[in-house]
Design brief:
5-stranded antiparallel sheet; 2 helices; about 100 residues; alpha+beta; single chain
């Protein structure tokens, strides 16, 4: 996961692109917080909290409150930019 900033709201989030190389890591990372699973019928599709369907190429986002959601690549690319690696990333910094 990398740190990104929403260009519209200045919210700082962690995000990763879901693809064949990251699918196992995505499952492990999200499992630490929620109960995701792969949809065997449409593999590899990741389901988070029975609410969010993550397809190959989509982005998995964890906000400052620890909630997960998904965005399609084009939407993510329009709204988020990678945050400076040298900056501090704490919840207090973005409030």
């Amino acid at each position: 996961m990398q740190i990104y900033t929403n260009t519209q709201t200045n919210e700082v989030v962690e995000a990763m692109r879901f693809n064949h190389e990251t699918k196992d890591y995505a499952l492990v990372f999200v499992t630490c917080y929620k109960e995701p699973g792969f949809d065997e019928k449409f593999f590899p599709t990741l389901i988070i909290d029975n609410m969010f369907k993550v397809e190959i190429g989509d982005w998995i986002i964890k906000d400052v409150d620890g909630e997960f959601y998904a965005l399609m690549d084009d939407t993510f690319s329009e709204r988020f930019v990678i945050k400076d690696a040298n900056s501090v990333d704490t919840k207090e910094d973005i409030q």
